[in-house]
C-alpha cells in the first residue's frame, strides 16, 4: 500500500491535493500528520481539518498523531471516521487501553515508534494493535533523510507477523522515495508513507504509481 502524506501538500488547496492522488490505482491510505508543537517541534493541523478531509475524500484516512497525551485526544479522530489512528508509544500512558478505545470507536489502532525506540519491550502491547508505524526519520518534518537502521525493526516485526505471533500492517514513515522504497519493501513493509516524494513531484498521481511499480516489481 502507498499512503501519501499531505504534510508536503499545499495546505491552502487541500481538497485538490487529495484528489491529485486519488487516481485509478492511486493512494491506498491518505496519511495525515497531526503535530502539536510539544511532542514534536512543529505544528500542523487538528480534528477540524481532519473532519473536513474525511468529508472531502473516500480514501481511508490514516491519522498519525505526533502529540502529547494521545490517551485523551486520539479517540476524537477515531469517532470522526478515520480508518486508522496511530499514536506514539513514547507519548501514550496506557497504550493497551488506548488501542481498545480506538477499536471500540470503529478505527484501526496504530502504534508508532521513533527511530531510537526499540521494538522488543512493546511486543505484548502490539498484540492489541492493527498497525505498527516504524518511523524512519525523527518525527516532525517532511523531506528528511531515510534512516536505514530502522529496517532491523521492520524485519523483526515482519518475522513475528509471518509466524502468526502478531497481526499487524507494518507501515514505514519518513524519507521514502524512489531510492529507498525497495530496501524497505525487502525488509517487509506493507504500507509506505511518502510525503515529499509524492507532493514535490510535478504529477503526484504519477509519483504514487511509480512508487507502487517499484514495490510490485
Ligand atoms: C514526519 C511525518 C511524515 C512526513 C514524511 O514526521 O510523520 O509522515 O510527512 O515526509 P517525507 O516522506 O518527505 O519524509
Ligand atoms: Zn507521518
TrEMBL record:
<comment type="similarity">
    <text>Belongs to the ribulose-phosphate 3-epimerase family.</text>
</comment>
<feature type="binding site">
    <location>
        <position position="31"/>
    </location>
    <ligand>
        <name>a divalent metal cation</name>
    </ligand>
</feature>
<feature type="binding site">
    <location>
        <begin position="140"/>
        <end position="143"/>
    </location>
    <ligand>
        <name>substrate</name>
    </ligand>
</feature>
<feature type="binding site">
    <location>
        <position position="5"/>
    </location>
    <ligand>
        <name>substrate</name>
    </ligand>
</feature>
<dbReference type="GO" id="GO:0019323">
    <property type="term" value="P:pentose catabolic process"/>
</dbReference>
<dbReference type="GO" id="GO:0004750">
    <property type="term" value="F:D-ribulose-phosphate 3-epimerase activity"/>
</dbReference>
<dbReference type="InterPro" id="IPR013785">
    <property type="entry name" value="Aldolase_TIM"/>
</dbReference>
<keyword id="KW-0413">Isomerase</keyword>
<dbReference type="GO" id="GO:0005737">
    <property type="term" value="C:cytoplasm"/>
</dbReference>
<feature type="binding site">
    <location>
        <position position="175"/>
    </location>
    <ligand>
        <name>substrate</name>
    </ligand>
</feature>
<feature type="active site" description="Proton donor">
    <location>
        <position position="173"/>
    </location>
</feature>
<dbReference type="InterPro" id="IPR011060">
    <property type="entry name" value="RibuloseP-bd_barrel"/>
</dbReference>
<keyword id="KW-0119">Carbohydrate metabolism</keyword>
<keyword id="KW-0464">Manganese</keyword>
<feature type="binding site">
    <location>
        <begin position="173"/>
        <end position="175"/>
    </location>
    <ligand>
        <name>substrate</name>
    </ligand>
</feature>
<feature type="binding site">
    <location>
        <position position="173"/>
    </location>
    <ligand>
        <name>a divalent metal cation</name>
    </ligand>
</feature>
<keyword id="KW-0862">Zinc</keyword>
<feature type="binding site">
    <location>
        <begin position="195"/>
        <end position="196"/>
    </location>
    <ligand>
        <name>substrate</name>
    </ligand>
</feature>
<feature type="binding site">
    <location>
        <position position="33"/>
    </location>
    <ligand>
        <name>a divalent metal cation</name>
    </ligand>
</feature>
<protein>
    <recommendedName>
        <fullName>Ribulose-phosphate 3-epimerase</fullName>
        <ecNumber>5.1.3.1</ecNumber>
    </recommendedName>
</protein>
<dbReference type="InterPro" id="IPR026019">
    <property type="entry name" value="Ribul_P_3_epim"/>
</dbReference>
<dbReference type="GO" id="GO:0046872">
    <property type="term" value="F:metal ion binding"/>
</dbReference>
<feature type="binding site">
    <location>
        <position position="64"/>
    </location>
    <ligand>
        <name>substrate</name>
    </ligand>
</feature>
<dbReference type="GO" id="GO:0006098">
    <property type="term" value="P:pentose-phosphate shunt"/>
</dbReference>
<comment type="pathway">
    <text>Carbohydrate degradation.</text>
</comment>
<keyword id="KW-0479">Metal-binding</keyword>
<keyword id="KW-0170">Cobalt</keyword>
<feature type="binding site">
    <location>
        <position position="64"/>
    </location>
    <ligand>
        <name>a divalent metal cation</name>
    </ligand>
</feature>
<dbReference type="Pfam" id="PF00834">
    <property type="entry name" value="Ribul_P_3_epim"/>
</dbReference>
<feature type="active site" description="Proton acceptor">
    <location>
        <position position="33"/>
    </location>
</feature>
<dbReference type="InterPro" id="IPR000056">
    <property type="entry name" value="Ribul_P_3_epim-like"/>
</dbReference>
<comment type="function">
    <text>Catalyzes the reversible epimerization of D-ribulose 5-phosphate to D-xylulose 5-phosphate.</text>
</comment>
Amino acid at each position: 500500500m502507498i499512503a501519501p502524506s499531505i504534510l508536503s501538500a499545499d495546505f491552502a488547496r487541500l481538497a485538490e491535493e487529495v484528489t491529485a492522488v486519488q487516481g485509478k490505482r492511486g493512494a491506498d491510505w491518505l496519511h495525515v500528520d497531526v503535530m502539536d508543537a510539544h511532542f514534536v517541534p512543529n505544528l500542523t493541523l487538528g480534528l477540524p481539518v481532519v473532519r473536513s478531509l474525511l468529508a472531502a475524500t473516500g480514501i481511508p484516512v490514516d491519522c498519525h498523531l505526533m502529540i502529547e497525551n494521545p490517551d485523551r485526544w486520539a479517540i476524537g479522530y477515531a469517532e470522526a471516521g478515520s480508518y486508522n489512528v496511530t499514536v506514539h508509544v513514547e507519548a501514550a500512558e496506557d497504550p493497551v487501553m488506548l488501542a481498545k478505545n480506538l477499536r471500540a470507536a470503529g478505527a484501526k489502532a496504530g502504534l508508532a515508534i521513533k527511530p531510537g525506540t526499540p521494538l522488543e519491550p512493546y511486543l505484548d502491547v502490539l498484540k492489541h494493535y492493527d498497525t505498527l508505524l516504524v518511523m524512519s526519520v525523527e518525527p516532525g518534518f517532511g523531506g528528511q533523510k531515510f534512516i536505514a537502521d530502522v529496517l532491523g525493526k521492520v524485519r523483526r516485526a515482519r518475522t513475528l507477523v509471518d509466524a502468526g505471533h502478531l497481526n499487524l500492517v507494518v507501515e514505514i514513515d519518513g524519507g521514502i522515495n524512489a531510492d529507498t522504497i525497495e530496501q524497505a519493501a525487502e525488509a517487509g513493509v506493507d504500507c509506505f508513507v511518502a510525503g515529499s516524494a509524492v507532493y514535490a513531484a510535478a504529477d503526484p498521481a504519477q509519483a504514487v504509481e511509480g512508487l507502487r511499480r517499484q514495490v510490485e516489481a
